Amino acid sequence: MIHPTAIVSSHARLGANVAIGPYSIIGDHVTIHENVEIDGHVVIEGPCEIGECTRIYPFASLGQPPQDLKFKGEETRLVIGRRNVIREYVTMNRGTAGGGALTSVGDDNLFMTQTHIAHDCIVGSGNIFANNSALAGHVTVGDHATLTAFVGVHQFCRVGDHAFIGALSKVVKDALPYARTDGQEAKCYGANTVGLRRRGFSNESIRHIQQAFRLLLNSSLNTTQALERIKAEMRGVPEIDYLINFIETSERGVTK
C-alpha cells in the first residue's frame, strides 16, 4: 500500500501491510516492520528501524543526522519500538559515535505535535510527550512518564519512571520518579499521587512513596540523611528501592 507519489529506496525493507502515504520519502537502510502506517509528507532516513503497528503522521522527520557539530558522518542508528504514535512535525535524530551511536525509543509512546528527540536519547515505554516538548542530547527517560507542553530537558539529564513534568518547565537536573516537577526553574512538588492511582498503584505503595518524598522534601534532613531514613524504614519496597537507586546514581543531581 504505497502511494504512487511516495519515494521508497530499493535498499529499504518493508514488512507486511505497511502503508506509505503521498509524497513520503523512505531512504536507504530503513527497516519498517509490519502494520506500520505512514501518512503523507513523512521523511525517514536510515539507518533507522520502526517497530510494528506504529502510526506516523504528516511531516514527521525521523532518522536524520544528529544536530551535533562533533558528528562527522559516522554510521549511527535510530531504533523505534512498537505501537508508537508519532504526530505531525515530530523530529527524532540518529545517535553519535560519542554517545553510543544509538537513539532508542521503546513501545507504546505518544509523541504529540512538534516533539523533538535528540541524538543519543534513550526513551522507555508508555510515555506521553505533549506538544513541543523536547529532549536535548543524551537524555534518558524511563517508563510511563508525562512531559507536558513546551518542556525542555537539558543534555545528560534523566527523567524517572512515572514522573510528571508540568508545562513550560526547564529541567536541568534529573527529574525524580513518581514525582510532580514543575516550573521555569523546575522544582519537585512531591508524589504524583493522581498519576500513580491512574496507573493502578496500590494504596500501600502510594503511602510509601508519599512518605519518602516527605522525608526528601519537607523534613529538616539533607538528601543523604533522608536516604538513610528511607532505607531504614522502607527498603524492600520495589518503588522505594528504585527511587533510592535513581538518586544515588545521579550524575547531575536531582531536582528537589
Assembly state:
single chain
Structural class: alpha/beta
Number of strands: 27
For the record, the CATH architecture of the largest domain stands as 3 Solenoid
Task: Using the coordinates shown, work out and report the CATH topology of the largest domain.
Answer: UDP N-Acetylglucosamine Acyltransferase, domain 1
**In CATH, what is the homologous superfamily of the largest domain?**
Hexapeptide repeat proteins
* Residue share in β-strands: 25-35%
Instruction: Note the overall shape.
Output: elongated
Ranges with pLDDT <50 over ≥5 residues? none
Report the sheet with the most strands, covering strand number, pairing sense and barrel closure.
10 strands, mixed
The CATH first-level class of the largest domain comes to Mainly Beta
Rounded to an integer, what's the Rg over CA atoms? 20 Å
Number of domains: 2
Terminal CA distance: 51 Å
Tell me the number of helical segments per DSSP (H or I, 4 or more residues long): 4
Helix content: 10-25%
**Chain-averaged pLDDT:** 97
Strand order of the largest sheet: 3-6-9-12-15-18-21-24-26-27
Q: How would you portray this structure in words?
A:
- The protein is an alpha/beta fold and 256 residues long.
- It has two domains: 132 residues, UDP N-Acetylglucosamine Acyltransferase, domain 1; 53 residues, Udp N-acetylglucosamine O-acyltransferase, Domain 2 (Up-down Bundle), CATH 1.20.1180.
- Helix content is 17%, strand content 27%.
- The strands form three sheets. Strands 3-6-9-12-15-18-21-24-26-27 form a ten-stranded mixed beta sheet. A nine-stranded parallel beta sheet has the order 1-4-7-10-13-16-19-22-25, with no helix packed on it. It has an eight-stranded parallel beta sheet with strand order 2-5-8-11-14-17-20-23, with no helix packed on it.
- Strand 26 and strand 27 form a beta hairpin.
- The longest helix is centred in the last third of the chain and has 15 residues.
- The radius of gyration is 20 Å and the shape is elongated.
